[in-house]
Amino acid sequence: MCMYIQLDRDRDDLIPTPELREAVEHSAYSFGLTSEQAAELLYDVDANGDRYVDFMEFSRLVRSLFTISRDGCWETAFQKWTLQF
Ligand SMILES: [Ca+2]
Ligand SMILES: [Ca+2]
Questions:
Q1: Residue 82 forms part of a structural domain
Q2: Which among 30, 58, 71, 77 has most CB atoms closer than 10 A?
Q3: What's the predicted TM-score (pTM) here?
Q4: What digits encode the pLDDT tens for the residues 20-50?
Q5: Alpha helices in the chain, H assignment, sequence order
Q6: How far is the CA of 27 from the centre of ligand 1 (A)?
Q7: What is the Å distance from ligand 1's center to 80 Cα?
Q8: Structural domain span for residue 64
Q9: Which CATH number covers residue 39?
């Protein structure tokens, strides 16, 4: 959500697809994604092909991101960490 507001600088509720792509690629590592997973997520992010990512498209991306991340390495890392205490 925060990322959406940051990327939508002119507040028209649309993010140019290249800008979103760049942002996700840059933060892939902190989401625990490989670059292949990030590329897969971004492949059909602009569902209606208007070269902008609207809020619905963005929500879908975030949901996929959450699904992938939950199965990904950071959850395992988190479980390991909590088991230590
Ligand atoms: Ca905008
Ligand atoms: Ca679109």
A1: no
A2: 58
A3: 0.72
A4: 999 888 888 777 788 888 898 899 899 999 9
A5: 2-7, 17-27, 35-43, 55-71, 73-83
A6: 20
A7: 40
A8: 2-77
A9: 1.10.238
